[in-house]
Design a protein that fits this description.
The chain is mainly alpha-helical. It has eight helices and no strands. Helix 1 (about 1-25) packs antiparallel against helix 3, helix 3 runs parallel beside helix 7 (about 155-185) and helix 5 (about 85-120) packs antiparallel against helix 7 (about 155-185).
């Protein structure tokens, strides 16, 4: 259990650092929106600002999701949950986290499929394709572009989605480990040592 708790502490630390960095990326989004307002008022409107703002918001939400799990700011039905003991909350969370893990695995598969498609792969095995690209055995086809006037390629924002979902999956596993440790009493012993 100490190895699992060490893994959990490592994931929590990584999530905290990434969460704090992503938290300040909101200023970048504010800068994009400020430039959009200035350019529409005084100059010719910029065609890239709306999509750049959307892409940076995707990064903000996807990369900040794991930090949200870490600090417990996700939405819960607090009617009963708020009055329970820590051990009872951990027992319920141990059961419900499997739904979250399943959902994140489905999202991860969809994100990898979508990223493979955006890189020009139209077959059935997106993971095989992405590993083939890394080893150089697959050839990248036509890159998917947005249908707007700016027409940026879409794979970078889809890679951010993959990273964000993977980080949320790691944090969900960390929460599962901490809940099991609370139930078995290992986390209380760990905190006192």
């Amino acid at each position: 259990m100490t190895t699992l708790l060490a893994f959990s502490r490592t994931v929590d630390g990584m999530t905290k650092v990434i969460g704090h960095v992503v938290m300040y990326s909101l200023f970048g989004l504010m800068g994009i929106l400020l430039w959009s307002s200035i350019s529409k008022t005084f100059f010719l409107p910029s065609i890239w600002t709306l999509e750049a703002a959307q892409f940076s918001m995707v990064g903000y939400y996807m990369l900040g999701g794991a930090y949200s799990l870490l600090i417990g700011s996700n939405v819960r039905m607090d009617l009963f949950y708020g009055s329970w003991s820590l051990r009872r909350k951990a027992a319920v969370d141990t059961f419900t986290v499997f739904f979250l893990i399943f959902y994140l695995c489905v999202l991860l598969y969809g994100a990898v499929s979508s990223t493979a498609y955006s890189l020009g792969y139209w077959k059935d095995e997106p993971f095989q394709y992405l590993f083939g690209v890394l080893t150089g055995s697959e050839e990248v086809g036509r890159l998917e572009r947005s249908a707007t006037a700016w027409r940026p390629v879409l794979w970078p924002v889809k890679v951010v989605m993959i990273v964000g979902i993977f980080l949320m999956l790691l944090q969900a596993l960390s929460e599962l480990i901490k809940d099991v440790a609370r139930i078995t009493g290992h986390l209380d012993q760990e905190a006192t040592q």
